[in-house]
């Protein structure tokens, strides 16, 4: 990357960074790093690209938001000495953006088939969230038994005026769905970790013992289980983002 490339990463950025008082937040694969500590490999990072990126962000007083999770957000997927990792993905913003939110954080999410870790940037107006509200999760509707759970609760008779009956049914449904979610879906983040670990173990067996039809079938099944777990986790974060005000890259 040369200086002109950085200026043209996005044609709209030129206008954004002109006004210091304007809130600016950019999350992207910048295809460069800010220092050698963000590089791991047998080669050497390009010094000119690093200096240009530093100069560009410093000129506009951009802040590199700290990212929790994976140290490097990209790898070339190669093995041995050819393996390279870099932190190419990040969130940068100015002080006006940070001052607009009482909570501002960024973390990596699990990666599956991509060579990049996705980023989750979460921000809130205040930290006083009070009691957590109940919300129907989209992933529940994908389970074949969800409709039966709802019907069974809704068909129970209650005494009172229509509004009282409705309120009692909603309360009962809320409690039943919470219990059902725990029993059926469990902790979706733990499920992702377990699925990743299972796939990793199978792939290690393939590397050590060679490919067999049985191991290949196990790998395919484990990959499907991981995809399913990641789908549920993605839907979970999408639901949360609507409530918190989040963006993901």
Keywords:
hydrolase; 8 helices; four-stranded mixed sheet; exonuclease activity; alpha+beta; Deoxyribonuclease I, Chain A; endonuclease activity; 249 residues
Describe the overall structure.
By secondary structure, the protein is an alpha+beta fold. Among the domains are: 23-133, Deoxyribonuclease I, Chain A, CATH 3.60.10; 138-180, no CATH class. Helices cover 45% and strands 14% of the residues. It is built from eight helices and ten strands. The protein has helices at 3-7, 13-16, 47-59, 95-99, 146-154, 162-184, 188-209, 213-244; strands at 25-29, 39-40, 63-64, 67-68, 74-75, 85-86, 89-93, 103-108, 119-124, 246-248. A four-stranded mixed beta sheet has the order 4-8-9-10. A three-stranded antiparallel beta sheet has the order 1-7-3. Strands 2-6-5 form a three-stranded antiparallel beta sheet, with no helix packed on it. Helix 5 packs antiparallel against helix 6 and helix 7 runs antiparallel to helix 8.
